[in-house]
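G.,

No rush on this.
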Amino acid sequence: MFTPSYHDGVIQHLITDVSEDDFNVAVGGQVEIIGWLYQYYNTEPKDRAFKKKKYLESDIPAVTQLFTPDWIVKYMVENSLGRYWIDVLQAKEDPRSSREIAEDFGWQYFMPEAEQSDQISVQTNADSLSQADIEDVTLIDAAMGSGHILIYAFEVFMQIYEREGYSRRDAAKLIVQKNIYGLDIDTRAFQLAYFSLMMKARGANRRFLTLDIRPNVFDVPESGELTSADFQELLQSEDEAKQLDYLLDQFRYGNEYGSLIQLDKSVDWSMITRISNQELDEGQLSLSSIVLTESQDKLREICAVGKILSRQFTIGAMNPPYMGSGKMDSILGKYVKKHFPNSKSDLFAVFMERLRSLTDTNGYYAMITQHAWMFLSSFEKLRSVLKADTLINMAHLGTRAFEEIGGEVVQSTTFVFKHQTIANYIGTYERLVNFDSQQKKEQAYLAAVKNTDVDYLYRTNQANFAKIPGMPIAYWASANLIHDFEVGTRMDELVDARQGLATANNNRFLRLWYEVGNTNISFHSVSIPDSIESQKMWFPCNKGGAYRKWFGNYDYVVNWKNNGHDIRNFTDSNGKVRSRPQNTNYYFREAITWSDITSGSFSLRYREPGSIHDHKGMSAFSKDHELLIMILAILNTPVGDHIFKILNPTVSLEVGNFKSFPVIKNKTIEDKSFNISRKLVQYCKEDWNTFETSWDFTSHPLLTHIADDNLSHCRSPVG
């Protein structure tokens, strides 16, 4: 009996949802269909892996594979490889503008740069560019997947070769042999990329498959248990053994590290090549000779990939894998922390650093990543590293850049850096975050290419980013706002912003206030000694909550009996304390507060004395009540919301973002703001207390104006 399977669903998707052109090799559909097939065949293992707390080595390919939309691939390649070759042509005195050259090649996703004040600074390497030969230009995708980026790079290289006078047959051979490189940890992805490149070359040269040419794409090998002792009879010195052991150690976990492997020491590749290719003495076939032959095969793979990872390339382009540090297993996590401390929070950021190091000075590297690196404090060190390079162009995509990813959490950006410092360079930024589909973003980008006067295209000097605390990539910040950051008073000079209690088990230690007896709740403790003296078990807990301004979200209580004895002694099976009672000297104090996770506009509230704030209920404190109310007035305005989105447009407003907020002092405005804010807090407090979910509820507002003689009918009879 036939039972529909998961793979039948894939086929149904291909029949009903995938464009017919994706199957048409004549219009580039070959790589499209291979990529989509591979992604959908990975869906089941990806879904299984997502349920795990930590990803295993075998899970990494499935959970990190995401097929890059075709237009984004073209954007990255045309604005990196294409831009580099335009630089070459102009260095060779081509009189045309970059726009004219791009149009001549048909590169419709190429974004011409802004007019620069000093073109000489941009062409500091003009002499070397004027000598550039297309055969020497190299491009690497360090996590190639099924080869989408490499295939389009092949097409662009082919265009350039033909303009340089090469035949298509010769160009196909040279591109595969000299220009294109790719690595991945997924064997199946490598096989698909290899196949795609071979078919692409075969399309330009019918005899290509008979030429014994191997594409420079590789499945990163793993050395496993191999050591120099396995090659003892082929070694000629102790130094050779040490070098070999060093190389094998670097590839010990090749299937996890992939192209993140960095060879810090020099390796004698000719020696490694000799050992891996040396013919064994003729004689009787033995088990040891068979094992040695297999070890040589593995060493040849390691040698080939090692050579790639120890060199630099003209162009880097990739869609890196995404994996937060919390999902990494101990092997990958330790490696990333040791070798990439500036970007360790997420694998995509680690690959930003790695691709940068694989790119030649004066070369370009292009990527599509999550946009968190642009704003979050956990990536501030990475931003500091990247400021040494020049951000040429960025298409800030926001949500829904990938059709198969819905929701508002995954937000993306694609960009091109030049691995060179160009002082006062004016970068170009397309803000596509408000276009709500992949197709609309593409159309908007193309419109910006044709018409740079659209209101979502920005030009700015990246030096402006350093004028904003934390150095966010806030390209849309106005000159006036940047000036405010320079002259304003930082928020952390006025109030103390702190995170609070992390119980490590909210199900155990938190309750809605009406789930416990009122007699065991202290609603009005104003200090830790006061809470101990009350002998109560439960105390109001500020854990953020839903969008609400001015006052409210008094929902939870926390078990803080005896100064949090149970929480402070909450340990795991190894006796390690799991909870984090942070900043306890701020407990029970009045504050202004906000939720760490937001959607839409940010909302801040006044919190009366008597609560313990947790790590989700971000809070700022001051002993000056009027100052708190006045600051609340500033932050709950559209201007406040705009500035917070400059500092961090993600769904998480961090304490560091709050501390960086600039305050421009003006006595008249401050007095007026205080009076308005005080009234709004009072009105919202009264509103909160009209609902039965408030512990200060007395009566329903609809009953307020009922005459006393009629009110008795609405009251419960006294028993």
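When you get to it, here's the other one too:
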Amino acid sequence: MKINSLAKLGGVALVTGLILAGCGSKSSQGTKKQEVSWMTPSAISTMDTSKMIDLYSAQVANGTNEGLLRMAKDNKVDPGVANSYNVSKDGKTWTFNLRHSKWNDGTPVTAKDFVYAWQRTVKPKTASQYAYIFANIKNAAKINAGKMSPSKLGVKADGDYKFVVTLDQPQSYFKFMVTQPEFFPQNSKTVAKYGSDYGTNSTKNSYNGPFILKGWSGTNDTWKLVKNSKYWDAKKVKLDQVNFQAVKTPSTSLNSFNSGKLDFTTLSGTLAANNKNNKDYVVFPQASTTYMEFNTKKIPALRNVNIRKAMGLAIDKKQMVNKVMQGGDIAPKGFVPASMAKHNGKDFADQAYVKAGTDYNLKEAKALFAKGLKQVGKKSLSLTLMGADDDDTKRATEFVQSQLTKLPGLKITNSNIPFKSKLTKMENQQFDIGLSAWIADYPDPSNFLDLMTSNNSYNDGKWSNKQYDALIKKSESTDANNETARWNDMVQAEKILMNQQGLVPLYQQGQAALLKGSVKGVQAFTTSPQYDWSKAYVK
């Protein structure tokens, strides 16, 4: 899932759960107030799960809505709307048995709500950027391409409380996928009522999760989650409220934390370095990669592999994480983060490692850049580096700019704009070079590697390689039921991506933070939007 560089908590975390802090204030009855205040680096962009693409909106959606299953510790799943499920022997048919849960208005959540939501997401008119993640469901690709009716999608309601999904190929990690917001149910009556305004503020939506979203106008920086009395497991939800505040500037957030207005704050740069001895200081590793994309569609020179390789080799990633970011980040081994996925005890990042794809070698970089310029018939190159406008990203773009301008003949101008605007511009190829970040939605290398296939909507730079595409396709078709063969396909694909420098991994994210108080039980599981506020409480 796309994030800006400040969104460093809650992805495929390399921890299975964490204790988060709360204010611990007392009510007039003398008991601890069941309320916490939480910082997020950016405001919500939408609550329409068919159109949701960013981490912050998804984190909120995970508290207000619920899918078939919920993430649990140790890469396992817990029941959600489905209280049980079974998979056919060939791995292609998944049957989910639904409990009698309700929307916040008291009407039942049924299998038809899942059928409606999934069909709506893959419908071309919806223009969902996450439609590709449904591709393995029968007929999804044809429907999304406008070649088949959405009614032909491989999903059906067998009565009100049995939901059946038919896949084209076995997909062992499908259980993780259905925990994600894009697979949540939708209330068709609510969508019809609000039309294009659906999900644009807190009132124009329906909620079936532990909490209800309140106070979000569609543009403001504060909102709250309030306990949903209609939630099927409401008796076990102890928190009454979670207060959110979007704060772009880490120093502002730290001041609010120190004054008791926030119970959690992220740290970066010198703030992280200065607080390492604080008793509340913690670092959470993430399965998230910040990387540099090249617009090969708009800029012919960036189609030259030597120019791309030169830029990758010119950036000292170790210096970037140790001297510039300083927030718990680590130098990358590749696009797929280390320690996220393993096969036969071997880490994917180690097996797919290409030294030249993440190395620093300025001498070689200069030689390659000169060679590339000659090949494209240019003596110099002027490019704009685009990133979000938060402090972390500004610091990152400034460092990258300083590194790239060491290449003779290369001029880099930085453009830092609001995160939402940056997403839009990059989606429309209105950039030269862009800083992006991806945090895993599910613990499988495909979640990263699929992004760089030629026709993927998240491949903003439109890098394309036929052999890469073929390997990814093979891993998801003929080798889908052969775990070792599938793994090897993906390893080869990543090596091609790094050897061709289709993108430049800059760092694997970690999150330095301060936690205080006594609220326990909030857990961050293996997928990006997964905070489980339903189990939190103030001790």
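The longest strand covers residues 281-294. Confidence is low (pLDDT under 50) at residues 5-30.

Enjoy the weekend,
O.
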